[in-house]
Prior knowledge:
Blueprint: E1 6-10, H1 15-28, E2 31-38, H2 46-54, E3 59-64, H3 66-79, H4 96-110, E4 114-116, H5 125-136, E5 141-143, H6 154-163, E6 179-182, E7 187-190, E8 220-227, E9 230-234, E10 237-238, H7 241-254, E11 259-265, E12 271-277, H8 279-295, H9 298-317, H10 323-335, E13 341-348, E14 351-358, H11 366-369, H12 382-404
Parallel strand pairs: 1-2, 1-4, 2-3, 4-5
Antiparallel strand pairs: 6-7, 7-12, 8-9, 8-13, 9-10, 11-12, 13-14
Helix pairs in contact: 3-7, 4-5, 7-8, 9-10
Amino acid sequence: MSAPKKVVLAYSGGLDTSIILKWLQTTYGCEVVTFTADLGQGEELEPARAKAEMMGASAIYIEDLREEFVRDFVFPMFRANAVYEGLYLLGTSIARPLISKRLIEIAAETGADAVAHGATGKGNDQVRFELSAYALNPEIKVIAPWREWDLTSRTKLIDFAEKNQIPIARDKRGEAPFSVDANLLHTSSEGKVLEDPAIEAPDYVYQRTVDPEKAPDTPEYVELSFERGDAVAINGEALSPAALLTRLNEIGGRHGVGRLDLVEGRFVGMKSRGIYETPGGTILLEAHRGIEQITLDRGAAHLKDELMPRYAELIYNGFWFSPEREMLQALIDKSQEHVTGTVRLKLYKGSVRTVGRWSEHSLYSESHVTFEEDAGAYDQKDAQGFIKLNALRLRLIAMRKRRLGG
């Protein structure tokens, strides 16, 4: 790869990406444009601007993408009820395509010929960033310093920072107890004290949720309203996508909802242990399944459930911008045309359960399922022929077995 002239760097303002900024400048002699996304990680981002200015970034982008993140990425994913390996709500995975999208757009706006990220060569994020980048601009150069440089230890990183007068926060001089990725959907903690999957994670790892054992002794009821598969209101109050997820995080967090300790299979081949907190997303998933129970036809619901693991794996592996993900999304979105109504949820000591649901689009017919007199809504005699036809092939197999003595 020829040396880039201008690079757009996904920049957090932390030690690692600050070192990457300087490394790009010194290694390639190129201009560096920084891009910092506010995805609801809960950190003050203006210090990133000051640090990028101090280090000579040629242009600085700091953008609030919370609404776009939830509206165009989180909500479409939740229409599918997507979970990876049966448990993980894909909080880190779903943020990467949006960051990549803006990296590529800013590269076009600034005339940059390359983008760079701070993901390591062992993880999934390098794959997600780069697959998205190439899908959006097949000619773009992607620089992944962790795969190129010789700064292979914390000591070497600190030495490089000191040599190049990069400010180092006091708590960054020692080994971090674990690494954290956060956005409006979740927090993810990995590494160091969490690397032994046999040992329970210490309580200080959790940042968004109270210990369920210390949660309120009184349950809280919440009503979540949907239109065409997307949540639009809490307890009757209409909210924007980001405001709604923020509110659900607050509600779920105080009841200890959404904690997950998972050993997952990374796309690159190894297994890793992560501690996830997804309070609002856990409520949202339970509620969405609750409203689908009465508004989605059985055939459509079962097909969705068959396709969901494939859809979730595509997102986990970084294929958000692939044609197959877009095809599945079209099918999923079609299924949501009547997923409109309200779900009542009960939150208590780390759990969230659907306890009521209603909709003008409901397929639930009390007159058909009642144990009382149904006034002719359903003729039970019809079931006899239905059973006989479905049993025919089973009876023929049984007769063959008897005939052949098998």
